[in-house]
Amino acid sequence: MPATPRRDLAAMIVPLGRALTAAELPLLHDHGLTMWAYSVLLRLDDRPLRSQAALAEAIGADKTRIIDVLADLEERGLISRTSDPADRRVRLLALTPEGHRVRTAAQSAIQSREDRLLARHLTPAQRTTFLEALATLSTLPPDTLTTP
Question: What is the torsional sign of CA 114, 9, 134, 132?
Answer without folding.
Answer: positive
